[in-house]
Amino acid sequence: MQHMAQLSPGREQSQGAAVEVRGLGHIYAGRDGAVPALADIDLTVPAGRFVVIVGPSGCGKTSLLMMLAGLRTQTSGTILVDGRPIATPDPSRVGVVFQEASLYPWLTAVENVEFPLVLKNAPRDERRARAEAMLNLVGLSGFGGRYPHELSGGMKQRVSIARGLVQDPPVLLMDEPFAALDEQTRMTMGHELLRIWSQTSKTVVFITHSLTEAVYLADEVIVMSARPGRILDRVPIDLPRPRTYQMMATDVFGALRERVWHQIRDVP
Amino acid sequence: MTRPSPRTVRRLIGLGLLVLWEAVPRFGLLPELFVPPLTKTLAVLWLDRSIYGAALLVTLYEVAVAMLIACGVGILTGAIVGGVATMRNLMLPVFSSLYAVPIVILYPIFTAWFGIGSESKIAFAGVYGFFPVMLSTAAGIRTIDEQYLLAARSMGATLPQMIARVIIPASIPTVLAGLRLGGALTIIGVVVSEMLTSASGIGYLVTMNRTILDSPRVFAAIIVVLALSVVFDIIVRAVERRTLVWQTAGRRTASPEAAAPARLATV
Amino acid sequence: MSTAAVILIRIGLLAVFLGAWEFLPRTGIVNPMLLPPLSLVIDTLFDILGRGDFREAMLVTTAEVLVAFIIAVPLGGAIGVLAAEHAYFGAIFRPMLFYVFSIPKSIFLPMFILAFGIGFEQKVAYATFSTIFIVIMSASAAVESVKADYVLVAQSYGATRAQILRRIYIPSMMPILLETLRISMIFNFTGVMIAEMYASRTGVGHMIANWGENFMLPQLFAGVVVLAVAAMSFNELVRYMEARCSTWRS
Fold first, then answer.
1. Contacts of A96 in chain B (CB under 8 A)
2. Shortest CA gap B102–chain C (Å)
3. Domain A11-93+170-265 homologous superfamily, CATH
4. What is the Cα–Cα distance from C229 to C223, expressed in whole angstroms?
5. Cα C89 to Cα A99, A177, C177, distances in angstroms
6. pTM beyond 0.95, yes or no
């Protein structure tokens, strides 16, 4: 496949930790003084892994993701992405896919995808070809000329993923990307994401509220607690890949989901 | 029974009004001094076309300069007030409080300062149109979806890139709505000030002919003003359609939110 | 920035503005004939407030504004509700209203003068005319702002029409209704001012127009200050009520 040639080397070739978090803590100034949002976060994500973070609302998982993206600065601790600290957003190392469609409504799908390259002043032909290849990868070839309002919710999130991948960053961060979709579309998108992931070999950190989605997608599920957000448990998901919808009906799948649910339920 | 479409009814109403305009004075239901027949008005307009044409040119010149001032200063101030949080907290309540003052009371000051020529009209209409442009620009920038900015930051956008590629395009619809309103208000401001104290322009023709009780010529001037606002509206709509291809059809029509800036409008 | 700081800075800006108004003409940087110093304007202000003709003019203007307001708001409100509730009627008249909105209503002043003369009735009639369209539009926006879901929930619990009106419509429309009152007053006041400045024998608008024509700038500025303060006071009063009524809004 043509687009695969343009992406970074396969998963089996990447080594070491793509994301490394050491002793991360965050305190923000709330109305009644300082509020600890995150505490003692240690997290190592090997290159090419698919890690899903779950936890109750307000456990700081979105804050954590923002810090991994360099969009917010932590109070203490270090974050290494691709071996180097990340203090400001660096789209060549980290791509971000947001929850709601954060596509720009005044740009077409292909213009949205090439937007990060426009910011880098890449030559027009080059960035257009690259963006088309990404749209092709996410299954939207032929839709490049459409404006976001002419696309369905699922298609918009495909465009967002294409945009996150366009600079070929080793790490892709996803903040509840499918939360606004209906259940069927959500399942399809999860499946599609796994296909894209297996073709591109990115390291993915994915936040969700859906336990089924978490278990279905992940190599490892990280369970967080609230106020301050801490890592409660790390659940390895050793279901075989490629994952299939049928796996969701198996006892193993049910037991894994139960284990995660147990942790979250016990959180006050 | 099926009802005729609203558009048909509207056209019928419009046609009815024109027919009434002709028939009512013709049959003596109202004196011609009050409403001269439509045909008579149009005939006068044609007869005096050079006078009306010259007056229209004066009015158009004043409108053009005033619009430039209102839009330029309005967008600039609105961008500062909307974009800088400190300015917003400080100034926005002040501006919306000032907006309650009937701006027309400033017109005597402008005539005292600038005389009764075009300058006083331009100053007054400029101030008149400034407020909606400024307020909608500020609102347009303030209400930009946080996600757009966050996404741009995550893609490594610098501040100038953020302004040029996200903030400006994202605020265009609201700013355009403000320009539309501001433009309409500048026309209104020019006509009102010409009517009040002036020696030229369409508004002056209204007042001058009123004082000599020449009703057909008053109405001829009214027709010119109405035509002016219609043409302006058509132009702005065309510009909006061309600029906002990316908008959903629903957002462009008169939703309550779209009407909100319109509430700042006109007398 | 804290609220106290904001208020302090605003007071500071006001002081700079007033100071400039006083000192620029005093020092001759600005021609005091064109911009009379603040102290002179304030002296004149007290002077004209003590004059019988000015007080009478204020009474007349106030009466015109109030009567026009009392006519325009209920009438426009009723038409607006009709336009919002009656889809067909609304579809016919809404676009026409939008157009009427953007034309200078002052060009119809000559007709009002022919019909009503240049007295009290003409001011009221013109101000009503220039206000009513904004009331119609705001009232239909207010009705449309009531979420269909709220009504549906009330209906499912067996609420009667009267109950729905009282319990759902009125409370949800309250903030917009107050906003309508506020904006209508701006229009109404402007309408009366234009009518008085255009052709009149009394009223504050007539007086300031006269002062302007006769180059009596201290009086003119004093009159403008009185009118501006009156307009802003009413505006702030309604805004205060708006803020109190809409605490439940996010």
1. 151, 154-155
2. 5
3. P-loop containing nucleotide triphosphate hydrolases (3.40.50.300)
4. 10
5. 42, 44, 22
6. no
Q: Does domain B36-262 have CATH number 1.10.3720.10?
A: yes
Name the CA dihedral angle for B177, B180, B186, B189, rounded to a multiple of 10 degrees.
-80
Probe site for chain B from A72, A119, A120 (most B CB atoms < 10 A): A119
B86-119: pLDDT as tens digits: 888 888 788 878 888 999 999 999 999 998 899 9
C11 shares contact with chain B (CB less than 8 Å):
no
Q: What is the DSSP string of C160-223?
A: -HHHIIIIIIHHHHHHHHHHHHHHHHHHHHHHHHHHHHHS-SSSHHHHHHHHHHTT-HHHHHHH
Domain boundaries, chain A: 11-93+170-265, 96-168
> Hey, CA dihedral for C143, B240, B262, B220, is it positive or negative?
negative
Q: Do chains C and B touch (3 or more CB pairs under 8 A)?
A: yes
* pLDDT digit string, tens, across residues B34-81: 888 999 999 999 999 999 999 999 999 999 999 999 999 999 999 898
Q: What is the pLDDT of residue B1?
A: 56
pLDDT tens-digit readout, C168-182: 887 777 777 888 888
**DSSP E strands, A14-167:** 17-30, 33-46, 50-54, 76-81, 84-85, 94-97
Kindly report the average pLDDT of chain C as a whole number: 87
Measured between alpha carbons, how far is A127 from A129 in angstroms, rounded to an integer? Answer: 5
Question: What pairing do the DSSP bridges indicate for beta strands A76-81 and A84-85?
Answer: antiparallel
Contact B154 A147 (CB under 8 A): no
The Cα–Cα gap between A108 and C40 comes to: 62
Phi/psi at B99 (5° precision): -65, -20
**Rg of chain B over all Cα atoms, to the nearest angstrom:** 22
| Residue range C40-136+175-245, CATH number | 1.10.3720.10
The residue assigned the tokens 């409660």 is: A232
Token pair in block for residue A82: 């691709």
Q: Measured on CA atoms in the order B142, B147, B148, B154, is the torsion positive or negative?
A: positive
Count of Cβ atoms closer than 10 Å to residue A225 Cβ: 20
Residue carrying the six token digits 């009627």:
C89
Alpha helices in chain B (DSSP H): 6-26, 38-47, 49-83, 85-98, 107-114, 118-142, 146-154, 159-162, 168-196, 202-211, 215-243, 249-252, 256-262
ipTM: 0.87
User: pLDDT: is C218 or C164 the higher one?
Assistant: C218
Say whether the B–A interface has 3 or more Cβ pairs within 8 Å: yes
Nearest CA in chain B to A113: B155
Residue B40 to residue B267: CA distance in whole angstroms:
28
Q: What ranges do the domains of chain C cover?
A: 40-136+175-245
Distance CA B107, CA B188 (A): 13
H-helix or E-strand spanning residue A220: strand A220-224
Alpha carbon of A16: minimum distance to chain B alpha carbons (Å)? 24
CB neighbour list of residue C134: distance below 8 Å, 6 or more residues apart: B263, B265, C76, C101, C180, C183, C184, C187
Q: What are phi and psi of A27, to 5 degrees?
A: -125, 130
Name residues whose C-beta falls within 8 Å of residue A176's C-beta, 6 or more positions apart in sequence. A99, A207, A208, A209
Of all residues in chain B, the percent with pLDDT exceeding 70 is 91
